[in-house]
Each structure stands twice: as structure tokens, then as C-alpha cells.
Amino acid sequence: MALLNFKKTPExxxxxxxxxxxxxxxxxxxIEVMPRTAEKVENFRDLLPEGTRxxxxxxxxxxxxxxxxxxxxxxxxxxxxxxxxxxRIIHDxxxxxxWIARYQGEADxxxxxxxxxxVTTPHGDFDSSMQLLETGxxxxxxxxxxxxxxxxxxxxxxxxxxxxxxxxDALRWKQDFANRTDAQMALATQFAFEAQPIxxxxxxxxxxxxxxxxxxxxxxxxxxxxxxxxxxxCGVGAxxxxxxxxxxxxxxxxxxxxxxxxxxxxxxxxxxxxxxNVTNVHFFPLGGIKTNAHWAIENGxxxxxxxxx
Length: 309
What we know:
TIM Barrel, 12 helices, FAD-linked_oxidoreductase-like
């Protein structure tokens, strides 16, 4: 666990550099893994603060056995796991209930991220996270926390015309679901690279009566080329210009892109506006789990996960 004491060493290389605002903003951060990337990590306890929520991304073609095994391992190491349930790769209610039963019975999972998934054509009965919620299967199984997807820069799969009407309607439905059920819900978002569009989006949700907590997606440190590749593939729009400007600077082209600026700006805004509805940071470790974990620790992200986050 030596890494978790890194920031506390008075004479260490990062002593005095940690911003209190950033440290507070990173408290209770989460991180995302896939079974194949998790296999490369010998010991998560050497990298992540105890109690860190770990999302497990379910990519099309990943066997449910691999997902459950990863969840079981992480849970045994003391990390609450939140597996993805991508609606469009779940054939029917029987498959959904089977997955839920496996996660609960083998890995003691009590929370999930529900999303449509990156598949264009549904494999079966489900097309959206709302349809998964409507089954009542998660409530019946006693899941205590359900997160759904958020898109600070829109989602052209849902709104091809870019007007955002379908996304807005879906968010209102999910807000109503949270209001009329006991589900603890939050929005876990796609990653973005620029603070101001995130702030404007979050404020617009609040103005529209959407008060679900926002766990903002942030891309962890990675090579610029890697970051651009993922941004294009994931449909990240407006804030992609941050990477494009960086790419024009030859002196920075080979250096890793780190989320220092966007985190610092969001942290400052949160400190000045305590009711800002971005409550947590969710990391996409595009440059690797170890690289992301080290960055978080060096910037003060060594606080335990708040129980109600």
C-alpha cells in the first residue's frame, strides 16, 4: 500500500503541489476496467484507495463468466463493483435475470450501470436502459444503486439531428423513475476534455429539473494519439478541439495528455459553487489503469469512497 502514502510524504516529490480544491473534487472518484485489462493488474490494492468504486465495462463479445469473475475478484479485494448492463446485447428478460443472479450469487454485486450500449442493432428485446429499468428486475433483486448514462456533448446515436430532444426526454423519464422509486441513481457520463461545456450542460440539467448527481467522465492520462482515437470512436464532439489544438503544437505531440486543466477548472467551480451537481469524477483509464491510478494519487485522489455517493 506504499503508493497510497505517496502524497503524504512531507519531503516527497509531490509535497506541497496538491491543490485542496482538486483533492476535495477527487474524493470518491471511480475508475473503469474491462476483464482483459484487469487481468494485467497484479494487485488493485496497490493502486486504488480502499473502497474505490470500479465499473466493469461489458464490451460486446465478452463472456458473462469473465465479467462475473472480474467482479468477484475486485469485490474480494474490497472494491465495490458496478458492472455495465448494455441493453442492446441482452437478449431477453431471462438473460437479464440470469446475469443479475450470477453477479449477486458469485460476486455480491448490489449496483449497476445501465446503458443502451455501443451496438447499433439490438440483439433481442431491449433497446435502452429505460426498458431495463421498467422490468423491475433490479429492484426485485435488491440492487441499491443504479447509474445511467449521461452525455455532456450530446449523443448522435439517440439524436442524429443534434437537437438533443430524445436525450432530454430520456433524462426526464429517468428523473421521474428516481422520484417514484427507492433507487439511488446518478448519471455516469461520457468523457469530455473541456470544463466549460460540462458546466453549461450540468447547469442546463438543473434548470430543467434534472437533479440526479453527475459522475463526470474524465479521460485519464494517455498519449495524444490514443486520446484522439478514443474521442473520435466515442463520439466526443465539441471538446475534441482541446486535443486538436494540442496536436498542432509539435513540442507537445509526443507528451502524454493529462486531465490537469479540466479537473482543476471543475474543482474550482465546485469550490465556488457547492451546489454544483457534478459530485464525483469517473475515470476512463485510456492510457492504462496504473498510469491513471498514479496520476490520481499524485493529485490527492487517495480518499475513501463516500458511502452515499
